[in-house]
Amino acid sequence: MAAGAAEAAAAVVEVGTTGQFEELLRLRAKSLLVVHFWAPWAPQCAQMNDVMAELAKEHPQVSFVKLEAEAVPEVSEKYEISSVPTFLFFKNSQKIDRLDGAHAPELTRKVQRHASSGSLPPGGSKRLEEDLSLRLKKLTHAAPCMLFMKGTPQEPRCGFSKQMVEILNKHNIQFSSFDIFSDEEVRQGLKTYSNWPTYPQLYVSGELIGGLDIIKELEASKELDTICPKAPKLEERLKVLTNKASVMLFMKGNKQEAKCGFSRQILEILNSTGVEYETFDILEDEEVRQGLKTYSNWPTYPQLYVKGELVGGLDIVKELKENGELLPILRGEN
């Protein structure tokens, strides 16, 4: 009887409606709930389902759920799921963490951290501190100019972060960002790592420059432009990107991992031609994602370019294939 109960507890639950999801949030409020937003067409999701099944056996006190993202769009839109796989972590019916992508080691770490009651083995606390310090070093060096903020540049979630983004954009400074709301460990750990208690925080080449007040001072003294790297003008950047390879595909995901059904279909068509091509993941760069729509006068993705010229999206590529015109175009014969 006890073995059967343990086996049931270790099972991964599949949810198919918004009502089922909300009911599960309510029923499992007191335990950690891990939700995998997945798609049947994505092989990386199948791999992560296997990882989650193993984690369910190791952590019977944690509730693991599978939710097909495109089948329950209301839930996916509410939690801003733009790619698969994505994992959300809930406690007390509130989202406490998020993981985008097929990162099995990181998923395991997050489950272990959130499931922990706070007790650590001897030496465990020091080891965790060392792991966090290494992670923070990598994050602060992730781009020449890194902004740790509340929210994203597109949707700042506090006035100070919004002002910081406005200043950087006004000076055409090229920067990447990290949403500290997405990771509580980073949010708290970076305060100690940098000895700076508030956000936003701006880093250049891994070194802390400061918060909003210091950036304002640097702007006033005209030093900001000499410290931070300049971004190329968007139009110039898009021209370079569309000409990066003879055949360029702008898509959600990449050659190895398509993150939407349309991108997956166009990959299959291109792969069937045998023509070499490069891809650009628009989910990794919001500026390109929005700017290319205007640059090409084409509102959706994927977008296929040959020698810098737009061919079209999935429907046009399908038509060209059916008409026997696709291969000559990809080879530059038309």
TrEMBL record:
GO terms for cellular component: cytosol; iron-sulfur cluster assembly complex; nucleus; Z disc. It is found in: Cytoplasm, Cytosol; Cytoplasm, Myofibril, Sarcomere, Z line. One of its GO terms (molecular function) is iron-sulfur cluster binding. Keywords: Cytoplasm, Iron, Iron-sulfur, Metal-binding, Repeat. Residues 1-116 form the Thioredoxin domain. GO terms for biological process: [2Fe-2S] cluster assembly; cell redox homeostasis; intracellular iron ion homeostasis. Its main location: cytoplasm. It holds the Pfam family Glutaredoxin. The keyword Repeat applies. The keyword Iron-sulfur applies. Homodimer; the homodimer is independent of 2Fe-2S clusters. Heterotrimer; forms a heterotrimeric complex composed by two BOLA2 molecules and one GLRX3 molecule; linked by [2Fe-2S] clusters. Interacts (via N-terminus) with PRKCQ/PKC-theta. Interacts (via C-terminus) with CSRP3. Interacts with CSRP2. Together with BOLA2, acts as a cytosolic iron-sulfur (Fe-S) cluster assembly factor that facilitates [2Fe-2S] cluster insertion into a subset of cytosolic proteins. Acts as a critical negative regulator of cardiac hypertrophy and a positive inotropic regulator. Required for hemoglobin maturation. Does not possess any thyoredoxin activity since it lacks the conserved motif that is essential for catalytic activity. This is Glutaredoxin-3. It comes from Catagonus wagneri.
